[in-house]
Fold this protein.
Amino acid sequence: MTKRGHFAAATLLTVLAASLTNPRRALAQPQKMTPFAADSVRTDYTASGAVRGQPEDYTYYRREDGSYYYRNWSEGSTHGLVAIIDAGRHDYAILEEQSRLKITFRYSPERFERAMNPRQEGVCPEPGGQVELLGNAGERFGLQVIRVRARSEKSTREELLAPELKCFSIESVETYSTGDKTVEEVTSLKLGPPPDSMFEVPSDYVERSPAAMEQEYKARFGRPFWGDDWSRIMENNYWKLKTLQDSPR
């Protein structure tokens, strides 16, 4: 799977897990969020410091109601991947720009709130276990940031997080046990409501299930999009969510 496909899949599975479990859990009142727009660049490095592959560009938008948009593409490419979580429509749409295919995960209002509340209530990670809070790290783009470190068996990740933006990551450096490194850094950030047009799904995109999108993408471009394993997982969740959408809660 491409990095951009993996990012979308991981994000989606997090959202789905929250919506498909604990169906009777009481919902917290959604909180207003600070709206913003940001651009970042993600670059992979070898252990020797050489750039591996093409850097990837990201654009992020977030609205006050928690709706979230991101677009990701490799430098030099005109096509990318767009993901839109829309609080008004209660859905999560993934748009593949080259094929003009889309996958839409639709929620009932209750299941959408269940899925989105963890994102809206999310605060900076508390220290303990594998997470260390390293303290204040000054300002970036006029916002106070804190530095945190998370360790796993395969890597150590340090991030600068902005508490005012629900700990949106301003900078992250992940160093792997091999010595390879991935760096993502925000290059521009502006507070304020993003354009409503960014959350509109163009009418010329064709809806597909994850498995159908995988099959059509491979047939047209000769390479996988999700990959067979992820495609099966996404397909199962796609139809499970459709089944649960109108079921008693």
In short: The chain has a mean pLDDT of 82. The helical segments are 3-20, 109-121, 210-221, 228-245. The chain is about 25% helix and 40% strand.
